[in-house]
Amino acid sequence: MAFSLKIKSNVIHILFFLGLTFISCHPHKNSETTSNENHSCSLTDSLLGKDFLEKNFMDAIKLIKPSAKKSSSKTGMVFIKGGKFQMGGDFPKENNEMPETALPQGDEFPKHLVQVDDFYMDEHEVTIGQYMEFINATNYKTVAEYDINWEELKKQLPEGTPKPSDEQLKAGALVFHLVDDKVDKNNLSNWWVFTQGAFWKNPDGNTVSINEIKNLPVTQVSWYDAMAYAKWMGKRLPTEAEYEYAMRGGRNGTMYPWGNETVDSGNWKGNFLQGDFPYTNTALDGFENIAPVKSFPPNDYGLYDISGNVWEWTNDWYSPYYYNELKNASKITYNPQGPEESIEINNPNATNKVVRGGSFLCHDNWCSGYRNSRRMRLSPDTGMQHIGFRLVKDE
Ligand SMILES: [Ca+2]
Ligand SMILES: [Ca+2]
């Protein structure tokens, strides 16, 4: 009895550290742009090791041969006519009642003129069923299926932390759980739980049958895993600019893809969270968790869940200074590809890719990720339960 209790306490101890090492959260003021508080939460560097990922995953991606059938097809894609737009934060006409978290954040400014070329975009998020076809064809192994590398984890833990058993270092991914209302809202590791055995085929760790989840967007996929699928499909991840342009659906200057009506007014506009994040979820929109793709109306370009359901990877590195650099460099930027390297004000060692569009966990009192210009970021080696992707293709 005593022995099993000790094991259990060790497991909790290690999983607690895993939570902490995965997630770092910094509420801070970004004085360079606006006074809005930019609640920055990001996942830290890999538990597999950056070198391992760069080498093994980029090598694995290089070896993937595009599927002749898939890469010659534009089935399920929407043509998006290129054009100019003002990229960046829009304030609603009446914003007196809105919390600061519902408004544009510092890194969404300055607005700057961008032009993107024509492209095709997947009409919905890549589904688990679609991702399964890729895995079956290539035997690709996603990041979340690798056991944790103790040598890497050790670097991120207090010196002298004993090595956990091999069992405790088994592969897994982060799964969301609602928490008690006494829990601190500023620490994401309170509700993101490292769950062994969670990966794209078992995204919440409790999946019984893959047939039941085939039409859900694939999640628990890292940026590398999205790149691997893109290679096979003969497509690519969108740039951040392409994503925002597509999300706006031709409506320049509005806060959301549907206009300026607040998120909970009128008909349900996408899969978001109703209630009080991260404590309650009343699921008034019909979905407490992720919804099957196309459960909500598309935007004006015919793109489903471009706002909400799951966040989506883009190809761009994240930098809070990038918009300023573009604005200072020229009156208009053609097809911006993101900064040369990732910059995080509070963590010089972090490298993050931009994710866009918000998820089923977004709420005005938290991140308002369903806004056209909202930027979030994540370490490219990390999948999560609310992060997926869709792809684009040139002519
Ligand atoms: Ca919902
Ligand atoms: Ca989405």
Radius of gyration, in Å, reads 20 Å
Percent strand: 15-25%
Number of domains: 1
Strand order of the largest sheet: 14-13-11-15
Reported for the largest beta sheet, the result is: 4 strands, mixed
Q: What spatial form do the alpha-carbon principal axes imply? A: globular
CATH topology: paralog of FGE (formylglycine-generating enzyme)
Helix content: 10-25%
The CATH architecture term is: Alpha-Beta Complex
CATH class: Alpha Beta
Mean pLDDT: 87
Give me the number of helical elements: 8
User: Which spans have pLDDT < 50 for at least 5 consecutive residues?
Assistant: 1-17, 24-45
The H-level CATH homologous superfamily, spelled out, is paralog of FGE (formylglycine-generating enzyme)
Helices and strands, in N-to-C order?
HEEHHEEEEHHEEHHEEEHEEEEE
Structural class assignment = alpha+beta
Ions, cofactors and other ligands present here are: calcium ion
Distance between the termini: 65 Å
Secondary structure tally: strands? 16
Short description:
The chain has helices at residues 2-22, 50-63, 68-71, 128-138, 150-155, 223-233, 240-248, 322-329; strands at 23-29, 37-43, 77-80, 83-87, 112-116, 119-122, 172-176, 192-196, 275-276, 280-281, 311-317, 333-334, 353-356, 375-378, 387-388, 392-393. It is α+β, with helices and mostly antiparallel strands and 395 residues long.
